[in-house]
Amino acid sequence: MVESVDLIECPRDAIQGWAEPISTALKIRYINALLKVGFHTLDFGSFVSPRAIPQMADTLEVLEKLELNGSGTKLLAIIANLRGAEEASAYDKISYLGFPFSVSETFQRRNANSGLDESFERVKVILDECNRTGKEMVVYLSMAFGNPYGDPYSEEWVLEWAKKMAALGVRILSLADTVGLAKPAQVRSLTESLINNLPDQIIGVHLHSTPANYKEKIDAALGAGCRRFDGALKGIGGCPMAADELVGNIETEWMVDYLKPTGINMGELENCLKLAGEVFHL
Fold first, then answer.
1. CA separation for the pair 97, 226 (Å, rounded)
2. Fewer beta carbons within 10 angstroms: which end of the chain, N or C?
3. Distance CA 175, CA 196 (A)
4. What is the C-alpha to C-alpha distance for residues 250 and 76, in angstroms, rounded to an integer?
5. 106/279 Cα distance (integer angstroms)
6. What are φ and ψ of residue 235, in 5° steps?
7. Could you give the domains of the chain?
8. Is 109 exposed, middle or buried (0-12, 13-18, 19+ CB in 10 A)?
9. What is the C-alpha separation between 35 and 245, in angstroms, rounded?
10. pLDDT tens digits, 12-37
11. What does pTM read for this prediction?
């Protein structure tokens, strides 16, 4: 049992790339059920262009119907620019704004329509908005374990960008294995490097994996000192902008079973697993 682990459930990541439309009513029902499980945070939706991510076009409508009373779970919304940050910051229900910052130039342009330098400037202004409105910013360092595009990559490159984010005042950084390239030894090495070099930051991992090696990846991150883990029920998810054959998120139910964290309501979790089958036709 690892009592201090924070589990971040990511229905947004699961829903955003789903090929078939999911009704707003079903999203509301599903996320409200997830709020009863006891997760630290729900990555519930995104304030991005509906043309880019059609499944997220109803994020605001979903947000308005979420029932946070009695739930200790906090909400995180993904944003890609200042406009999205300003829109999300207007809502008291949202505690965290997540910004995907890829260390791959190619992927950052695909995902946010801006290169690394311009995106770094976006982080600055979004962080200012967060500080002004009392939100906390989470920066996801995507393609943190390599990329399929041939862009330069090294652990030192990732650490350099992480240090730049920390210098701005970003407190939470999450290493994202966007297309499932990470090996356990690499997860251990990179996560440990950031934790050792940035002791004032919270370093999380957003890993994608197959059943064959998820335990090894979790053990690697745990051994490095990581206590913040993202997942998605049923292992669905991945960024549609990657334009690649995606490996899904680590299944949250696997992590609950393996880590046995405190605070999880197993009955509500079972209910959500059944609902996930309805949402994703499994």
1. 21
2. N
3. 14
4. 19
5. 32
6. 70, 20
7. 6-279 (3.20.20.70)
8. middle
9. 30
10. 999 998 989 999 999 999 999 999 99
11. 0.94
